[in-house]
């Protein structure tokens, strides 16, 4: 018999019974465990009678067991996610191995031409009738569940899948809350709905704290980053808040009528108040406008709820203690990481070194460089010995000298990848209010070294894109940090023969053309990797499309009929080749004629003067307008302060890159001519649908679209993939398109 069962046996007359020791029931008892029901009497008409042999057995409390049963549902959900992750990982590894094996066979067999190999691979990848139908079902499921969004309101779910999980989670928990209840209102009996709601709210505390922790084992097991699991955290928190309020409201009339003010009730009120305030300070607009307020309030109100819940009903402390331990373990582990990565312990100076004015060999200010790129954009470089990361991951940066809150740290995506010679992590940080603004004010010049910054991480599951045939990376503003790391990782792996990607396309929206210098060192490194990959026989056809959205050259209307309306939306510079080539020839051959030239013509002509196969095939497939009759002088009258592309020197033919042993000339924005040759300039905003469709039609295998940037870009990217990769187009042979979005800090 369990601990929740009590056996009451009849006693002799005049003896002390268990029922006489128990408190007598009151009409309105407010306790969570209501009073025992009346015990049947074994006497008749006041006369003694022989006791009956059958005892009265109190039934076990169902709500205690229901809270434990609910964890079977939670564990089953996590197990399903783990299995799906294993299936995806196995499929990607198999696809990568098959692609690399076919590439090796191509090099070994002289009888198979490159064209025959491409046709064979295309036929194998697209599969037969059954394979196309299966992919079509997958595309339909993805479009409905993950690519359909809701308006960005307060606490609205982001996708249909998010909404569906929230509804399912709520229904399952309400079933456990209401099943086998004896009463609703007024509260009567052991198994009343109020008690059951209260116990079920306790049972969710461990999973709520586990899902929000940065060092989350579920993220590693399921391949879902902790920021994605954060939605599950919010869903479970909402259900916990709902059940807590249900428990309180059902008990309120009895407690109010009895005038009960016992401490455990006051602790319950404190816990519910803390939970409600935690919810109110978690709305999206508060997170975006006052991140520090959100963090501080989240910690304080969470502690208030946990402490209040413990003292409200200590019999359920076995749910509270695991939650507190999970939170404390995550905090301690994060502190240890910060101390180890930043070498904080050797940071303490000796008195002798302090008198001599020596700085410590290691510390948070060593290996830190902050550059002011624009009035609202900084590039922060932090180098830490023995620290490493992978593409797509991020780290938290804190500055103890700039804040009074020891816990304050902010996540930023790492823009580069570690190399054999350097493990300095680079971040692009846009200045907002709060921490970033204080960091900006701490700069004494455009380049500042020695600021004491602490780094923590890396965090985020490192998704590998090497098994795909085509990868399209979409970025806006400083969101390029997420895509640039994948961009470099792909080319680095291709140089070492560990990537199956054949076409790599980066699309970046920036306000002004000069912003390309933000990632100029990364593009130079990418060009080096691409050269090595080509020499190793694993060349990647890569292209960088830059869309300038707010510079004068983008805002100024072009002369009528000078350049026809381009096919790619947003005003891509794919037209007017005759005029552009004429202008380029004039600038290169005649030094005296180097008058200020608009961004569009020079960049366009430079892009099309380069011989990369895919760019040429695309350009030739478009319909271009003939060269207009305008004189170049009429078109070379720019606005004041118009952004211009740096021009070539007289001696440089410009398009073949540096020769062996020669140093490549800088284009003026920190880019070598080799890297510059892969950049294609456009004005306005990109037509994402056309970009995705064009790359998908030419893809020879599975395709991935990854995006990071403003909410508008995320929504436009989803819409583009949804419209291109339909069930019908997939049945007709279009390859699978996987979609990934980075919503760091959203």
Automatic annotation (TrEMBL):
E.C. no: 1.16.1.9
Superkingdom as given in the UniProt entry: Eukaryota
Catalyses which reaction(s): 2 a Fe(II)-siderophore + NADP(+) + H(+) = 2 a Fe(III)-siderophore + NADPH
Top EC group: oxidoreductase
UniProt-listed SUPFAM superfamilies: Ferredoxin reductase-like, C-terminal NADP-linked domain, Riboflavin synthase domain-like
Domain FAD-binding FR-type per the UniProt entry, residue ranges: 360-465
Region of interest (Disordered), residue spans: 18-54, 552-575, 591-638, 648-667
UniProt-annotated location(s): Cell membrane
Composition-biased stretches (Basic residues): 605-623
This protein's UniProt keywords: Cell membrane, Electron transport, Glycoprotein, Ion transport, Membrane, Oxidoreductase, Transmembrane, Transmembrane helix, Transport
Family: Belongs to the ferric reductase (FRE) family.
Protein name: ferric-chelate reductase (NADPH)
């Amino acid at each position: 018999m369990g601990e929740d069962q009590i056996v009451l046996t009849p006693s002799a007359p005049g003896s002390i019974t268990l029922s006489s020791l128990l408190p007598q029931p009151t009409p309105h008892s407010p306790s969570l465990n209501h009073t025992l029901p009346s015990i049947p009497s074994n006497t008749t008409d006041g006369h003694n009678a022989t006791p009956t042999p059958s005892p009265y057995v109190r039934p076990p409390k169902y709500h205690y067991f229901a809270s434990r049963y609910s964890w079977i549902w939670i564990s089953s959900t996590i197990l399903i996610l783990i299995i799906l992750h294993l299936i995806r990982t196995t499929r990607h590894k198999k696809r990568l191995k098959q692609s690399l094996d076919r590439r090796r066979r191509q090099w070994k067999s002289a009888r198979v031409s490159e064209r025959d190999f491409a046709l064979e691979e295309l036929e194998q990848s697209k599969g037969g009738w059954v394979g196309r139908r299966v992919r079509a079902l997958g595309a339909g499921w993805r479009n409905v569940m993950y690519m359909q969004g809701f308006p960005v309101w307060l606490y609205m779910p982001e996708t249909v899948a998010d909404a569906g999980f929230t509804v399912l989670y709520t229904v399952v928990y309400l079933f456990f809350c209401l099943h086998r209840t004896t009463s609703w209102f007024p509260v009567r009996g052991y198994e009343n709905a109020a008690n059951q709601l209260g116990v079920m709210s306790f049972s969710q505390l461990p999973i709520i704290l586990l899902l929000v922790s940065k060092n989350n084992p579920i993220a590693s097991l399921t391949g879902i980053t902790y920021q994605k699991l954060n939605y599950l955290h919010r869903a479970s928190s909402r259900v916990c808040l709902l059940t807590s309020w249900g428990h309180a409201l059902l008990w309120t009339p009895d407690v109010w009528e009895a005038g009960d003010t016992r401490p455990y009730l006051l602790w319950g009120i404190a816990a519910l108040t803390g939970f409600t305030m935690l919810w109110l300070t978690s709305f999206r607009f508060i997170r975006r406008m006052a991140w520090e307020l959100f963090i501080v309030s989240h910690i304080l109100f969470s502690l208030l709820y946990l402490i209040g819940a413990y003292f409200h009903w200590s019999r359920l402390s076995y749910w509270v203690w695991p939650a507190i331990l999970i939170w404390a373990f995550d905090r301690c582990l994060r502190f240890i990481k910060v101390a180890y990565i930043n070498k904080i312990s050797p940071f303490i100076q000796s008195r002798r070194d302090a008198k001599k004015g020596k700085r410590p060999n290691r510390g948070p200010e060593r290996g830190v460089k902050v550059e002011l790129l624009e009035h609202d954009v900084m590039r922060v470089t932090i180098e830490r010995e023995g620290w490493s990361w992978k593409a797509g991951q991020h780290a938290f940066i804190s500055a103890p000298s700039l804040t009074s809150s020891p816990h304050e740290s902010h996540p930023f995506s790492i823009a580069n990848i570690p190399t054999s010679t350097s493990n300095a992590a680079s971040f692009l940080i846009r200045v907002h209010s709060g921490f970033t603004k204080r960091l900006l004010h701490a700069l004494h010049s455009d380049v500042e070294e020695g600021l004491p910054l602490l780094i923590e991480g890396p965090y985020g599951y490192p998704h590998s894109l090497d098994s795909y045939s085509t990868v399209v990376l979409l970025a806006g503003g400083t969101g390029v940090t997420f895509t640039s790391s994948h961009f470099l990782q792909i080319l680095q792996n291709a140089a070492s023969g560990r990537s199956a990607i054949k076409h790599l396309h980066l699309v970046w929206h920036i306000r002004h053309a000069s912003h390309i210098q933000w990632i100029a060192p990364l593009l130079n490194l990418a060009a080096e990797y691409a050269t090595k990959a080509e020499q190793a026989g694993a060349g990647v056809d890569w292209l960088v499309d830059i869309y300038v959205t707010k510079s004068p050259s983008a805002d100024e209307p072009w002369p009528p009929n000078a350049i026809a309306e381009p096919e790619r939306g947003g005003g891509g510079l794919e037209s007017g080749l005759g005029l552009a080539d004429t202008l380029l020839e004039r600038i290169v051959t005649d030094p005296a004629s180097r008058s200020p030239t608009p961004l569009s013509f020079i960049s366009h002509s430079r892009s099309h003067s380069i011989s990369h196969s895919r760019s040429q095939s695309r350009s030739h497939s478009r319909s271009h307008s003939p060269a207009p009759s305008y004189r170049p002088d009429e078109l070379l009258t720019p606005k004041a302060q118009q952004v211009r592309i740096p021009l070539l020197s007289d001696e440089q033919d410009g398009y073949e890159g540096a020769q062996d042993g020669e140093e490549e000339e800088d284009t003026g924005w920190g880019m070598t001519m080799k890297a510059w040759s892969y950049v294609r300039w456009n004005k306005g905003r990109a037509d994402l649908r056309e970009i995705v469709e064009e790359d998908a039609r030419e893809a020879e295998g599975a395709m991935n679209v990854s995006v990071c940037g403003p909410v508008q870009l995320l929504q436009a990217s989803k819409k583009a993939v949804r419209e291109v990769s339909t069930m019908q187009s997939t049945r007709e042979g279009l390859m699978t398109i996987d979609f990934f979005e980075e919503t760091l800090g959203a």
